[in-house]
Amino acid sequence: MNVRRRLIPVVAAAGALAALSACSTDSAAVGDTGRFDVVASFYPMAFLAEQIGGDHVSVTSLTEPGQEPHDLEISAQQTARLQESDAVLYLKNLQPSVDDAVAQSEVRTKIDASSLTSLEKHGNEVGGHAAEHDDHADDELNGLDPHIWLDPVRYAQVAEGVGKAFEKADPDHAADYKANTAALVKKLGALNTQFETGLENTGTKVFITTHAAFGYLAERYGLTEEAINGLDPESEPSADRVKDLEKMAKADGVTTVFYETLVSDKTAKTIASDAGLKTDVLDPIEGITKKSRGKDYFAVQEANLKALQSALGAK
Q1: Are 18 and 38 in contact (CB under 8 A)?
Q2: What's the CA gap between 7 and 62, in Å, rounded?
Q3: Coil, helix or strand for 88?
Q4: What are phi and psi of 290, to 5 degrees?
Q5: Measured on CA atoms in the order 286, 291, 292, 295, is the torsion positive or negative?
Q6: Which H/E stretch holds residue 256?
Q7: 157: alpha, beta or left? (left if phi > 0; alpha if psi -120 to 50)
Q8: Residue of 25, 6, 123, 117 whose CA lies nearest to 70
Q9: Would you say 165 and 45 are in contact if contact means Cβ atoms under 8 Å apart?
Q10: What local confidence, expressed as pLDDT, does residue 253 receive?
Q11: Per residue in 212-246, pLDDT tens?
Q12: Residue spans of alpha helices (H) in the chain
């Protein structure tokens, strides 16, 4: 993640705030919906808001379907939309331009998902042990892995916190938010059980991915993720890293190199070809597109489970 992603032009932000008085009658404004208006930073946050809020909320995502969330540079129009919302739901340290816009906004309810569960330091290799982390990861995201939504247990913890925040901010519908949160947490518990039983007996516990997004999932289910890149999905691996991965694949019986839908699959396919391995999709669910193996979080997670079972030789 380069420096440009860390910055939001101050002039653009100030312009957006100044434009609010001139555009306050715009019918497209978020605050005119008559419902509890929530701005979410990207898909996993928007999904939570929709599931918990139900018919009482209007949810707008700052990240468009198919857009790589790490690359988002928030626009002046989006900053204005954020200002008019009742609540913002985001994940601090994943999208620096969002962090800056939230900090500058006067939104009454600011919900940082990273504060609702525990975050850990992950690097290229993540498993059910103390994970190693590298200087690159430290530089980009303070060493803390933001991909908490891929672990159903942590995602459920976030859901509970979001539900409580909605109850407090919109007390007229608190009972519904509470019920919706409980239903969502129950579904996430069932998903956790699916992963536990589905990955309990496998031929290998090691899998290779292009992007170190699955560290929490790996730790939860006793697996080891070996990532070609670090936490930044677009960084390039060193030649030594590629050689190490090829050796490791042979030693640990790895059959598959996983890639994701929102970034290029070129590196994964090159490494797989050189090492005589297959390729498949393991989706970090940062957005839902036509290429996604499912229409929502649960469907894509179930597809991820099947892909892991196949690659790891589930028995």
Answers
A1: no
A2: 16
A3: strand
A4: -65, -25
A5: positive
A6: strand 256-259
A7: alpha
A8: 6
A9: no
A10: 86
A11: 899 999 999 999 998 886 545 555 666 777 788 88
A12: 10-22, 43-53, 76-84, 96-104, 135-141, 152-169, 174-198, 215-220, 239-252, 266-275, 297-312
Local structure of 61: helix, strand or coil: strand
Q: How many residues does the chain have?
A: 315
Query: What is the C-alpha separation between 15 and 2, in angstroms, rounded?
Result: 25
Strands 206-209, 109-112: pairing kind: unpaired
Query: What pLDDT is recorded for position 31?
Result: 47
Neighbour-count burial for 257-268, b at 16+ CB within 10 Å, e otherwise:
bbbbbbbebebb
- Tell me the whole-structure pTM to 2 decimals: 0.82
* For residues 143-169, average pLDDT: 96
- The answer to whether 109 and 88 are in contact (CB under 8 A) is yes
Give CA–CA dist 53/68, Å, rounded: 25
Contact present, 31 and 85 (Cβ < 8 Å): yes
C-beta atoms surrounding 314 within 10 Å = 16
Run of H or E residues at 87: strand 87-90
Listed in sequence order, the residues at least 6 apart from 77 whose beta carbon sits closer than 8 Å to its beta carbon are: 16
DSSP 276-313: T-EEEE----S---TTSSSSSHHHHHHHHHHHHHHHHT
* Residue range 16-30: mean pLDDT, rounded: 33
CA distance 309 to 258: 13
Using an 8 Å Cβ cutoff, are 42 and 27 in contact? Answer: no
Residue with tokens 């999208």: 95
- 123, 228 in Cβ contact below 8 A? no
- The DSSP bridge pattern shows strands 57-61 and 36-40 to be parallel
